[in-house]
Structures are given as structure tokens and as C-alpha cells.
Write the C-alpha cells for this entry.
Amino acid sequence: MVITELSLVEYYDKIIPRAKRKNYKWVISVIARHADAKELYQHIEEDWASINDLTYDNVLFVFSLGASLENNSFFHTEGQENYVGTMCPYVETINEERIANRKEDFYIHTYGAADIDWKQKHSQSVTEFIRKYDIREEQLPVLFIWNLERNCYSVVSLNHSEDMYSFLKQRVLEQENLMKQKQKLEEKLLPFKQERMYFELYDFLNERACRLGCSEKEAIQSVLFGQSTYLEKKDQIQDKEIRKDLKKIGQWKKQFFTNPSDIPQIKNHVKEMLEKKMGIEYRIDSIWEKIGNKGEMVTLTNDIVKDVILVCAKLISNEIYYDASEDRRNTYVRDLLDEKGYVVRDQTRHGLSPQGKDAGKVDISIFKEGKTYTLIEALNLSCLSKKYIDTHLDKIFDYDVLGNDINIILNYVTVSDFDKFITNYITYMKERKWRSPMVDLDEKCKEYKILYSSIRVVKTTHKRNGKNTILYHICALINGAK
């Protein structure tokens, strides 16, 4: 029988990925000192099973207690004997069966534990936890609410007289009502998948046309508006990508719509449903953020790298972007990050141009509290074009005048041998001369478990003005070989 004890911090390092894999939406915790936990747990025993039923298994409830060990958390190590695993003696979890792999009653493990000062150990573990998550001592007890879909958390102070059950029940019921509305809209949108692809491409081409000179703009819009055929206007359009997309949208128009005169009505109908869906999603995301009004503080921490990886997974599975230009792919990435709640700007004038003169344009900027937080520079690569890669890598260091902790280079890769490309890319990262010296290179970026064979992440660390800054190289294979 081998059991390793976990602290609260270590417990969360295990529980978050497990909860995600088992399709929970939230982890909701009570973090409290021992004296508070005992009183709070009396309410938990009375009320929390009921609120758990309301969540339809979307929420994993976790409580830091320290009062009893009999029901506390235990994670069995799969493939080993039943009582080989890890435990957190300060946590009880409601609805934990999907994540714990517990085989039998846990009380067997508590024999001989009477000589341990569990109150003191619990206090030490809580101290470590609140330091990591920037929770002040005077805020305890708190609700610690982790949004697993957006990978962010909220911290809310509670009064000792707070009726947590009523408080959270109201939020859960509001969320469930909105989720049902969202599901109905998604079902209504499902038959319009092809039409949405057409509308996205149409709007993109019209937007691009508005940026071009009068002659090209008139030619593109004439084809889009049905005033001319593609063959009549193609010689007036210089951009090969636009010509290819105009040809494609003409084919889609014939393929997707029985009667072209119905297109405006269908587009307005789809647009209304999408706007309603986005509004509902915003309200769902804001439900738990609203609880800041009940406490002293709400802290949200997003993982921009992980979210860009998830956005890339959606990009490479969407055939509309298989042959798309860099700008069009960037627009898609920007829009999805914006939907996730980031403050995003694309083609932002920022820092120095590669020539060191006027302010240049970076592809995507992520802002936090009014300041630039992360720059994303993207490029299409059909081979290891060293000169082209150098231009973009130097660009991101030139534009980052503030010295961000994290920046991202996003490579849209179209090659026949992705493994070979990654190997050669890493070799070149080791060989090239950097604007800021590279002090470390993580070839597999172990901090992120990549679930997709078509996405690779390389992490380089650079010394800048005596401080380490990180550049994540996200390589996304789009539409396989070309």
C-alpha cells in the first residue's frame, strides 16, 4: 500500500486536467481555514447534493476541510493495486467518481493518522494555495471558481453569514436556462453549415475589396453582387488568392442555393441566429464573473498559448481556410480569440518597422488592462524559407518595445512531411542569430499536452535587458501535403 500526500496546490495541478478530460465545465471550491471550514461544511452536507443535481454533472465541487479524513480525496494509480495512488487529506470532492478512480472506501487509510496535527498541515496547505493564486488572508473563506472551457478562474470573498447554496443555485439555474437556449440555436444552425461557409467567404472578399484600389474593388464587388461573371472580371484582379476565392464562391453559390434570390433572406436569418448565440455565450461566460459583485475581488487568468492552440485546431479542421491567405487566417484567429473574451487588435501599428523607421504593423495584439500583453505574428509556410522566417521573427522582437513576458509566432504550415519540417525548423532556431539571445529551447514544450498530431509547439526563452522572455512557436499543419 503506497500513498503519496498531495498539498492543495498539487491537488489542483491534478484535478484540473482530469476534470477537463471528463467533460466537466467548472470546478467550484470552498477554500477556508480550519475554523471556517467546520462551520461551512455543516451547510455543505445539508444543501450541496441538491445543487449538484441541478448542474447535470457539469460542475465538480471541491472543499478544503481538514475536519475529517474519511471521505477525502484519493486518486488511484491505474494499473496498480487498489491502494496505490495519491491523496489530498484537506479536500473532499462531491461528484468525483469520474476523476478519482477510487476502488473502495477510503476510511481504511485513516488508521494511525490520529498522531498527525492535521489542523496545522491544513493551515500550511491553505497558505501555500492562497499565495499561488494571490488571495489575501482577510478574504478567507472564498469561493474559488475555475472555468474549464476558458481556462480562467475567479476568486470571491464570502461573508460568514453567506448562504452559499442559494447564491450558487441562482447562478446554476441561470446558466442551465442559457445553455438550453444555446443548444436550441445550435440545432437550428446545423442545417446552414454550407451557407455559413458561403457567407463568411463573401464577407471576407467584400472586406478585402474595400482595402484595394478603385479598379480592383469595383471588379471584385461586381462579381460578388452578381453584376458580372468571374470570367469577365478576372483579368482586372491582381491578387491570385482573391481570384481563386471568387471562383470558389461562384461554385458554392450554384451548389448551396436553389434560388439565388433567397440568399439575402437566408443570410439575415443566419446572422440573427448567430448574434443571438454569441449574446447567450457572452451571458454564460459572464455569469460567474458577475459573482465579483458578491465579494471583494474577481481575478481572471487566461492561458493565451493554450487558447491559440485550440483556435488553430478549429482553423485546420475548417476547409474554407485550406487555401486561404495569411490575412484571412489571421482574421479567423482574431475573431475566435475575441469570442473567448480577449481584447484583440489585428494589424496594430506598434513599435518599429523592420527598417527601424516608422511604427510598423504586427498581425495580432492581445491587450490586458489597457496594455499590450502578447504579440502574435503569423506567416504562411510551404517550406522552411529561412529568409521569410527571419523577417517575421525579427519583426516580433522589433515591435515588442515593452518586453512582453510572452509572444507567439504562428506558422501556418503546408508541407508533405510535417515531422521533417519541425526537425529542420528546430535546427534552424538553434543556428540563427537572434535579436535577443536565446538562452533555452524546449523542443516539445512539455508544459502543454498537445492532443493534435497536426499541431506542434516549440518554446524558446530569450534574455532581454536582463529579463527572460518567452516566444512560443506554434506550427499548424493545414490541409496536409501540397
Remarks:
- DSSP finds 14 helices and 14 strands in the chain.
- The two ends are 55 Å apart (CA to CA).
